[in-house]
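Subject: design request, 284 residues
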């Protein structure tokens, strides 16, 4: 009974802030409403038919978001695991380096985006005048082929410290006697890592893959700060599309329909990835 009493405030807040708005979005997705009119006009599945029509840009935003998420997942986890292996070792200043890598994660993504926007536009220009290195003079945010990599790089840089911490915790949890037994049996460092350490790191890998997947799929604020979806729509994510449709175009019905479809897509994708990764885990 006491447990129920203590959970009621949290349950009330979650219901008010998440469940009820979600149900309302489901209703608004079946209507035409500009957010100002007193009553929305019920139009059935017309919004969903528009999204699946030939003139809709919704599929294009899904494609960009998937590309960004794949890039973000791969490089976030590869770099984080490599850094974690290095920082998990005992050496002077290890905690300082761990803290330095974690600092960007505690910063607002919007602030990080504005900082890197200044670096791309002004910082690189100054460095180019000092060094003459050609790549510093590229239009990192203005060229459609480079804007994607610029946005993805900033996303990886900002979140890297979080995954490093998770991997370090996983490495510390691996029993030392197993690693020592592998050395006694003649395993090389590479064999010890890929055949012993990495399989036993399965729960941490699953957690980091899942977290990076969800963070990639919901990317919004860093794009808003860096490119606002440009140049053109080269960096236009699905969350940006939903935001623009609902709050800029004042088409809450179509924006809600996009949000419902994207919710279903994210739910299916995350559950599939989580199930695949969980099956590959090795129990200690």
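Subject: RE: design request

Done. Sequence follows.
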């Amino acid at each position: 009974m006491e447990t129920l009493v203590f959970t009621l405030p949290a349950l009330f807040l979650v219901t008010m802030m998440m469940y009820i708005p979600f149900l309302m979005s489901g209703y608004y997705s079946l209507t035409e409403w500009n957010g100002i009119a007193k009553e929305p006009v019920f139009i059935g599945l017309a919004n969903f038919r528009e999204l699946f029509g030939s003139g809709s840009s919704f599929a294009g935003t899904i494609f960009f978001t998937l590309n960004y998420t794949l890039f973000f997942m791969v490089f976030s986890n590869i770099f984080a695991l490599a850094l974690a292996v290095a920082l998990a070792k005992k050496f002077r200043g290890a905690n300082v380096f761990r803290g330095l890598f974690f600092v960007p994660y505690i910063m607002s993504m919007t602030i990080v985006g504005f900082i890197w926007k200044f670096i791309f536009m002004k910082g690189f220009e100054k460095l180019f005048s000092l060094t003459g290195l050609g790549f510093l003079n590229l239009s990192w945010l203005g060229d459609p082929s480079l804007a994607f990599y610029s946005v993805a790089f900033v996303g990886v840089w900002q979140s890297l410290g979080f995954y490093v911490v998770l991997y370090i915790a996983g490495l510390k949890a691996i029993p030392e006697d197993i690693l020592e037994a592998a050395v006694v049996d003649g395993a090389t460092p590479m064999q010890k890592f890929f055949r012993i350490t990495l399989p036993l790191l399965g729960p941490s890998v699953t957690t980091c893959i899942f977290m990076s997947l969800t963070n990639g799929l919901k990317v919004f604020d860093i794009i808003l700060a860096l490119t606002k979806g440009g140049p053109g729509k080269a960096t236009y994510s699905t969350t940006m599309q939903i935001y623009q449709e609902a709050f800029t175009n004042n088409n809450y019905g179509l924006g809600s329909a996009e949000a419902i479809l994207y919710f279903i897509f994210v739910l299916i994708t995350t559950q599939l990835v989580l199930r695949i990764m969980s099956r590959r885990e090795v129990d200690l």
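The chain has a mean pLDDT of 89.
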